[in-house]
Give the backbone structure.
Amino acid sequence: MKPGNYLKPDNIYKGDARKLLKKIEPDSISLSVWSPPYHVGKEYEKQYSFEEWVDLIKSVIGLHYPILKPGAFLIVNIADILCFPDKNMPRIQAMNIRRQIAAVTREEVLEAQKKYPSYNRDELAAVLGCSEQTVDRRLHGNNIRGGKYNDQTRIHLVSGMIEDAGKKAGLFLYDRRVWVKDAAWQNSKWHTLSYRAVDEFEYLFFFWKPGVTVVNRNKLAAKEWVEWGSRAVWSIPSVRANDNHEAKFPIELPRRLIRLLTSPRDIVLDCFMGSGTTAVAAVREDRKYLGIELHAKYVEMAKKMVKEEMKTRRLFADNAEELRDLPKLVPHKQLTFPDR
Ligand SMILES: C[S@@+](CC[C@H](N)C(=O)[O-])C[C@H]1O[C@@H](n2cnc3c(N)ncnc32)[C@H](O)[C@@H]1O
């Protein structure tokens, strides 16, 4: 590919990651952070069979080797676990001594929706006194842990496939951290009806491309090293308002990775860009971003998010004089940009 035709940083491109990653300048990416479709039946991934999904993940990881800078990292955020109906699995002879099912019916949810047409899932849940998951389940019958299947469900781990794909690509699995999500469940009335637990954590797999990696302890404040820089478990509340994109990750996730693993003006890639969270984090940390996303509506959403972030930054910059006086009231280090 001719250098003039490479994808340009600070842009979000619409298209398939498998095609567009080939158009990125070799050795140019300082960090790639993404969360792919998880194969759990979300709207944006309905087109993939399990085999196609595996192929997507493997191909995308494989395409990273040439574009990463030597010594740079690819971070894959994914939940390890999938549920499959399995005809051969004997039916579990469950004897539920006490079944706690949210009393809310589908009709009640539909009625509330009619009464409050502008309400999102969280707001409807508050009105109905149930969890956001119950509202979704009543409306769409979604239950990612297998409740929708008549056959028994067994679980399947995907981390091995991801590790192998990295290895095959010439990348080394360097570390893994755990993102503990929370809280989406803390206030909920959800209780397991079996011995299966709710999915409340995901992984961050760190792949490294051989080369010189500058380890700069000055990148983070001492407090940040203690609180998360050196920690394997990151507790970050998940995004509650998932009504404009089904699976946003919280901005704190890419922000930490960006602060830990890159320097200002480095290029940060997300080839499953979704609503633009990684790009916003990159802008917030004064890095360049490069985004790829299959669906036009999310490309537009991501571009809008970046634009808003830049506007906020300009506003802060324009008022820098006044803000300089603020430390008298608020210690300088506490001045952060408003979170979404
Ligand atoms: C888990 S979501 C990412 C969400 C994102 N991290 C955020 O915070 O908004 C995965 C995204 O990958 C997109 N996607 C699915 N297949 C793709 C493909 N082949 N190439 C690029 N993007 C794809 C989906 O449309 C979806 O927005």
In short: Confidence is low (pLDDT under 50) at residues 330-335. The pocket of S-adenosylmethionine is lined by residues 16-17, 35-37, 44-45, 56, 245, 247-249, 271-272, 274-275, 277, 292-295, 298 (CB under 6 Å). The CA atoms of residues 99 and 205 lie 37 Å apart. The beta strands are 11-14, 29-34, 68-78, 81-86, 152-157, 172-180, 201-208, 233-235, 267-270, 288-293.
